[in-house]
Design brief:
The protein is of the alpha/beta class and 414 residues long. The protein has 2 domains: 11-23 and 282-408, Lyase, Ornithine Decarboxylase, Chain A, domain 1 (Beta Barrel); 97-273, Alpha-Beta Barrel (TIM Barrel). 32% of the residues lie in helices and 22% in strands. The chain has helices at 11-18, 27-44, 60-68, 78-86, 103-112, 122-135, 170-182, 202-223, 246-260, 277-280, 313-317, 404-408, and strands spanning 22-26, 48-53, 72-75, 94-96, 116-119, 139-144, 186-192, 229-231, 270-273, 284-296, 299-304, 323-325, 334-339, 348-354, 362-366, 387-391, 394-399. The strands form 2 sheets. Strands 1, 10, 11, 12, 13, 14, 15, 16 and 17 form a 9-stranded mixed β-sheet that branches. The longest helix is centred in the middle third of the chain and has 22 residues, at 202-223. The protein starts with 10 loop residues before the first helix and ends in a 6-residue tail after the last helix. It binds pyridoxal-5'-phosphate. The site of pyridoxal-5'-phosphate has 17 residues, from helix 10. Pyridoxal-5'-phosphate binds at residues 53, 56, 74, 97, 159, 194, 197, 233-236, 274-278, 370.
Length: 414
C-alpha cells in the first residue's frame, strides 16, 4: 500500500464523520490482489477455483466483490455461510471447512448445496451421512488431510504439523475413504489440506503439496477414480514490513508449478485455493487517535483509542504492523510506545519512531485488512469499530460501529 495520500481518500473527513477507531478497506486493492493471484496461477494451470477464506474479513461487501471477480467463499461456520449467501453466492461457490462443524451447520451447508463439505474425522463423516439421509440427498464431501508439515511461521499459524488438531492422518483418512465408498450417501469430491498461514518458505508449500499427492493416490486406489478437486488451502504470506505478498507468491507459484507438473497430478482435476490474507491483508488500515501522551520512567507513551479488542494480531502473535502519523507536524521524530486503552499489558502495538505526537493526532495502522475486524471483540465493554470501504473513489459504511446497546442487548438481569 502506498503511504502517500492513502489511496486518494480524505481520511480527515472520514474520521470527522465516523470517529475513531475505524477500519477502512480499499476494494480496488482487493480486486488487484485477486487478479494478481489469478493471473499468476493461470500461467501455471488454467483449471482452478479461488475460494476466499472468509475468516480473514467477513464483510458481505468483500464477498460480493469476490463473487463478481469469479471467486467463491471458504467458510467455517454458520455465520460465514450466511454472509456468503447474503452476498449472492450460490451453493456451488461455497466450500465448508473447519475441525468442529456442528450437526446443524453440516445440515445447513448440505441443504445449501455447497461445493464440498471437507471432513476432518470419521465421526464427522458419519454426521454428514446422517444429515444427507435427513435431507435425502447425496453429500459432496472432501477429505481434509494432515500434510505433516511444520511450517516456519508463528506457532499459532502452523496448522499442518503432525499431531495437530486439523485434518485426517493417513490411517483415519483410509478409514474415511472406505466408509465413503461403502455408503451411497456420499459423492467423494476431493482432497484438501492447509499447511498454515504466513508461509514464506517454498519448501513448506512444496512438502505439503507432495504429501497431498500421496493422499490423492490413496483416494484413487481406494475409490477407483481421481478426485474432482485438489485443494491446497491458503497461506500465502504478507510481508508486514512492506505490505507486499510478492515474495511468498513467487515461492508458492514455484511449488505449485512442480505440483501440477508432477506425474501423479490427475489430468483435468480442479485446483482449489483458499487464500485469505493475500487478498485482503494489505487492503485495510485502522485509523486511531492519540488520546494521551505521557512519559513513564523515561519511556514515551502514546495511548491511542484503538485497542487489542479492535485489533488483536499484535497481542496474539506479537507481530508489529507499520504505523504512520496522518497529522502533519514539524520536529524531530521521536520513539513512542503505542498502547491501547485496554487493561492488559499485551494491549501494546509496539515501538515506533514518529513525528512528535499530540493529543488528538491521527494515526493509521497499516495492513490490517486480514484478521483485523474479523478478530475484534467487546473486551473491556468496548463496541467494535466500523468498516468503511472505498471503491473507485467512493466510500461507504460496510459495517457500522457497534453501539453499547448492541453489546448489552443479550444480557438478562435476574
Ligand atoms: C483451512 C484454511 N484455509 C484457508 C485459510 C486462509 O489462510 P491465509 O489467510 O493464510 O491465506 C485458513 C486460515 O487459517 C484456513 O484455516
Amino acid at each position: 500500500m502506498s503511504e502517500d495520500g492513502f489511496w486518494g481518500l480524505d481520511l480527515d473527513s472520514i474520521v470527522k464523520e465516523h470517529g475513531t477507531p475505524t477500519y477502512v478497506v480499499n476494494l480496488d486493492l482487493v480486486e488487484k490482489n485477486f487478479e494478481a493471484l489469478s493471473s499468476t496461477v493461470r500461467r501455471i494451470y488454467s483449471r482452478f477455483k479461488i475460494f476466499y477464506a472468509v475468516k480473514a474479513n467477513p464483510l458481505i461487501t468483500i464477498l460480493k466483490l469476490v463473487r463478481e471477480l469469479g471467486g467463491g467463499a471458504e467458510v467455517v461456520s454458520m455465520g460465514e455461510l450466511e454472509a456468503s449467501r447474503r452476498a449472492g453466492l450460490n451453493g456451488g461457490e461455497v466450500l465448508f471447512n473447519g475441525p468442529g462443524k456442528t450437526e446443524v451447520e453440516i445440515e445447513a451447508a448440505i441443504g445449501f448445496g455447497v461445493y464440498s463439505v471437507n471432513v476432518e474425522s470419521v465421526e464427522e463423516l458419519m454426521t454428514v451421512r446422517k444429515a444427507a439421509e435427513r435431507l435425502r440427498v447425496k453429500a459432496r464431501v472432501g477429505f481434509r488431510v494432515n500434510p505433516g508439515v511444520k511450517a516456519a511461521t508463528h506457532k499459532y499459524l502452523a496448522l499442518g504439523f503432525q499431531g495437530s488438531k486439523f485434518g485426517l492422518d493417513a490411517k483415519s483418512y483410509r478409514a474415511a475413504l472406505h466408509e465413503a465408498k461403502r455408503t451411497r450417501r456420499f459423492l467423494p469430491m476431493g482432497v484438501q489440506m492447509h499447511v498454515g498461514s504466513q508461509v514464506f518458505r517454498e519448501s513448506d508449500f512444496q512438502k505439503g503439496f507432495l504429501n497431498l499427492l500421496r493422499f490423492v493416490n490413496v483416494f484413487k486406489s481406494v475409490l477407483g477414480f481421481p478426485p474432482e478437486f485438489i485443494d491446497i488451502g491458503g497461506g500465502i504470506g504478507l510481508n508486514y514490513e512492506t505490505g507486499d505478498t510478492s515474495i511468498s507468491l513467487n515461492r508458492f507459484s514455484r511449488a505449485l508449478s512442480k505440483l501440477v507438473n508432477n506425474p501423479d497430478w490427475p489430468d483435468g482435476t480442479t485446483l482449489v485455493m483458499e487464500p485469505g490474507r493475500a487478498l485482503v491483508g494489505n487492503a485495510g488500515i485502522l485509523l486511531t487517535r492519540v488520546l494521551y501522551v505521557k512519559e513513564s520512567n523515561g519511556r514515551l507513551w502514546a495511548i491511542v483509542d484503538a485497542g487489542m479488542n479492535d485489533f488483536m494480531r499484535t497481542a496474539l502473535y506479537g507481530v508489529k504492523h507499520r504505523v504512520v502519523s496522518l497529522t502533519p507536524r514539524r520536529g524531530r521524530p521521536v520513539k513512542y510506545a503505542l498502547g491501547g486503552p485496554v487493561c492488559e499489558s499485551s494491549d501494546v502495538f509496539g515501538e515506533y519512531v514518529l513525528p512528535p505526537l499530540k493529543k488528538g493526532d491521527l494515526l493509521a495502522l497499516l495492513d490490517v485488512g486480514a484478521y483485523g475486524c474479523s478478530m475484534s471483540s467487546n473486551y473491556n465493554g468496548r463496541p467494535r469499530p466500523p468498516t468503511l470501504v472505498s471503491r473507485l473513489g467512493r466510500v461507504h459504511v460496510a459495517e457500522r460501529r457497534e453501539t453499547i446497546d448492541d453489546i448489552l442487548r443479550r444480557q438478562a438481569v435476574g
